[in-house]
Amino acid sequence: MEKSSENQKKLSIYNEIEDAPVLVEVTPLVLQLKIEKGRKQFEKTVRNISTKIEEVVDKWIGIENKIESVAKEIAPSNKEISSGGIYVIVSGMAGLILTRKCTFPIRFVTPVITSFAASTYFFPETHQNIRNMAWRYYQARFKS
C-alpha cells in the first residue's frame, strides 16, 4: 500500500487544467488590405489568361485534327508519295523553264498547269480524292 500512495503523490507531467484559448482580434493594416486586393486581382487575371490559353490550345488541336483528317482523306492508300512528288515538282520547274521569256501571266500559269497535269498522271488516286473533296465542298457551300 505504501507504493500506491507514493504513485498518487507524484505529479503528472501534463497540466491537469487546460487553459481556455484566448482569441485576440487583430485588425488588418491598410498595407495588408491592399496586398490582399492586389493578390486577388492577380489571381483573377492569371485565371483568365490560363482560360484563354486553354481555349487557344483547344482551337489549335481542333485545327490539327481537321488537317489530319483531310490529309488522310487525300493521301493514296499505298502511301507512295515521294517518287511521284519529285516528278510533279520537276514538271512544274520544267513549265517554268519553258516559259521564262514569256509574259508574267503565262509564266505564272504554266508551272501550275504542268504540275497539275503531272499529278493526274503520277497520282491518279490522290487526284481523284482531291476532285471528290472539291466537289463535296462546292456542293456544300455553293449549291442550295
Automatic annotation (TrEMBL):
The chain crosses the membrane at residues 81-98, 104-123. GO terms for cellular component: MICOS complex; mitochondrial crista junction. Its main location: mitochondrion. InterPro entries: MIC26/MIC27, Mic26_fungi. GO terms for biological process: cristae formation. The keyword Hydrolase does not apply. The keyword Transmembrane helix applies. Pfam families: ApoO (PF09769). It is found in: Mitochondrion inner membrane. Keywords: Membrane, Mitochondrion, Mitochondrion inner membrane, Transmembrane, Transmembrane helix. Component of the MICOS complex, a large protein complex of the mitochondrial inner membrane that plays crucial roles in the maintenance of crista junctions, inner membrane architecture, and formation of contact sites to the outer membrane. Component of the mitochondrial contact site and cristae organizing system (MICOS) complex. This is MICOS complex subunit.
